[in-house]
Amino acid sequence: MGYPISTGTKCLPSQQLYKKSRSKIPQQLLHTGTDPGKLGHSGTAGRGGVSMPSAFQFQCHLVLIFLAASKGETRYLEVRDAGEDDPFLLLSEDLKRELSAGQIYRRSLRCIDMLSTEGQFTFTADQPQLHCATFFIGEPEELITIHYDFVNIDCRGGDFLKVFDGWILKGEKFPSSLDHPLTTSQRYVDFCESGDVQRSIRSSQNVAMIFFRIQQAGNGFTVTVKKNSNLFPCNVISQTPSGRFTMVIPHQHRNCSFSIIYPVVIKISDLILGHLNGLFLKKPSAGCAGVGDFVELLGGAGLDPSKMFPLADLCHSFHGSAQMKIGCDNTVLRMVSSGKHINRVTFEYHQLDLQETETRKENSIEEFCFPSI
């Protein structure tokens, strides 16, 4: 027996998701300023709402990255400098052969870059570089280890080199502060403060990032990136717009979010929470309040699940099919666990096409997901 959550799209689709795949990434998205915790910050919003200008710029950046990644069969993606015409380059056949032969992959980093492969990466400034970042992403079941091989920066002169456990863009973090085992300040590792004491940093999920400021030409650093297996993946950003995943939380009091940075159709086929069968649509005065173990579906236009709008709650176990169309720029399946049960949810997802979203516009909730026009 199926459990249809909704037949309509729950967020207004962003038409620009399908039109901007070759736009350039604006450099101002990565403004570090004096507070690295507010990387690119231009205002905050409460749960279910975001600032239109920042949300649009932020989402263009992320969606372009993931649209490019979805076009290839590889797990590697790099982002060119913001000033170049084509911001993306997919893995070449030569590099595939090199990696399959067991050789260590090496290349230079750009000021703004993205990587999903292991290797050794070097950045050398050819001019003052004030607002730079590299984003790392692995498969859902992988953790990322970043090791400093060589660092030559002027910490006293204002340079910095920091690792962040997760991603942060426009002041929004993934995982959110509610879902990460460390405090926000503990998620930063500053080379200028730790030095040789902590040369290797391991992420808590499949994404991590470094951001840096290097003002003297010729200075730079080299890092080695490795992947480690994660037996029970918790917080995940999907590399692709479609897939299937099983999230398991074994007797742990924690919250886990699976983020899909696309409008999607998501279908939950199996949910085990140690309760009786049942399903509740999200209502202002109802839902799973008071239930220690549940799954919620969230939609929004930002990165932080805690600032997204809750669309539906699933409070009890079931076997079958629960499907929902979510036309938001970002969709998150979030499991909340009390630690009293072995909780498990299996789901699959695929990207909504433009025709699917346009056919049911009358059921969209405009005030929760804004149009990007």
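(the above was protein one; protein two follows)
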Amino acid sequence: MSTPSASPSTAPSAAPVGPRPPRPDRRHRRSLAALTVLATLAVGCSALGGAPEQDAGRSSVPAAPPAVAAAEAQAGAQAAPAVQAAQAAQAAQAAQAALAAMPAARPQAATGQELNGRVSAAEHEAVVRQALAAAQRWGLAGLPLRAPAPPAVKPELADGPGVKRAAGLPPVVYRVPTSDRVIFLTVDDGAEKDPRFAAMAAELGVPMTAFLSDYLARSDYGYFRALQAHGVGIDNHTLTHPDLRRLGPDALQREICGQQDRLQQETGARPRLFRPPYGEYTEAALRTAASCGVTAVPLWNEEAFPDHLEWRYADQKFHPGDIVLTHFRAPAADWKGTMPDMLRRVVDAATAQGFAVARLEDYL
């Protein structure tokens, strides 16, 4: 991040008294500031480690009597913590001042925590260390990349590549129109309620959207409310997961709008996004969804499993704005692993290709 250069002064300069030494450039001044901080910290550390013994042969001060020496030693021991605390505080203030004079660095990888403030080097190091420990604890290949700030204006969902739109109907979105190197993780149904998956997503700060079917989620909506408390979007996947192409108007109303009502009751928020089961829909289904508050219908480009990814594109790579489908599932013959295994695979693949996982609701 570049630092804005100071505007030139318009005030007249005073007459010079003598030749002025050249001012060091900004980079040199910052280097001097950094060296000053290091020197201050070194002094503090040496104070914490104790002063070196004085050469007895060069001392001209006579030794104190044993009783007096003991009293002085006790007084010095009592004062040492206060002196050390004062020196540590001075070193921290110097470090803060030096860092404030430098442009704030924006890290490329994080766990959703804000590291872009002007913080002390010690604080920055502690947060990075914590992020690395979390990534290692969950078996990631490296730190997940941090998504950019949500767009101030959401992308226009015009008819085109990745978006299908018809007048009066909510847009069907396969890929969000954005140049940001982000993908979106979406998890369907709600059958498996794995606490380790919830803990992993929360600790790593991975955003996602859950599309819930009531007949699978209803056994423990509390699990999904806990996910919602950590920023997970909760959206509509019908009451009983039917093929919408086979339903009449009344059944469509019950399945789609009934789940809108149910999720509002369970989570306190009425969904704006709706995903039709199997990715199949009709114009009547889209019209029904619009009538009860749905503004977009996200489908998907890739599907994630614990042991592999299925790609829509021949290049088998992510593209900006891709939507990834997966499911809340337990290990089975066609689901070879756990929910944490699936999340690890998605995050590692995204990171390796230079993508961050972003929140779908921030773009749609």
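Reviewer note on protein two: Residues 84-137 form one domain.
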